[in-house]
């Protein structure tokens, strides 16, 4: 299946230039809201190249996006939505709830 511009016209093509430079047609950049500096994931399967817009995550923040952490975030969101929360008005109140003084 060939790529088509947003207006449904004929398939698009772009020449591969020296050093592997490829210009993504403006209609495609507009459709996907791509801007200079955006990152694209590159995948090769069955003789096809797939480019997928992606946001890169700093290494020191990668832990937050692991499946395990995201599952914990989802459980926390469910607890908040169901009202299963305890709000503390002070540090001392919080420490007391932990059995500390």
From TrEMBL:
SMART domains: SpoVT_AbrB (SM00966). Gene3D superfamilies: 2.10.260.10. Residues 14-59 form the SpoVT-AbrB domain. InterPro entries: SpoVT-AbrB_dom (IPR007159), SpoVT-AbrB_sf (IPR037914). Signal peptide: none annotated. This is SpoVT-AbrB domain-containing protein.
């Amino acid at each position: 299946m060939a790529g088509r511009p947003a207006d449904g016209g004929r398939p698009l093509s772009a020449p591969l230039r020296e050093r592997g430079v490829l210009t993504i047609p403006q209609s495609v950049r507009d459709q996907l809201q791509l801007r200079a500096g955006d990152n694209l994931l590159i995948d090769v399967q069955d003789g096809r190249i797939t480019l997928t817009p992606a946001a890169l995550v700093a290494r020191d923040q990668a832990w937050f996006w692991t499946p395990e952490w995201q599952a914990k975030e989802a459980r926390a969101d469910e607890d908040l939505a169901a009202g299963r929360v305890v709000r503390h008005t002070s540090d001392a109140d919080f420490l007391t709830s932990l059995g500390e003084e």
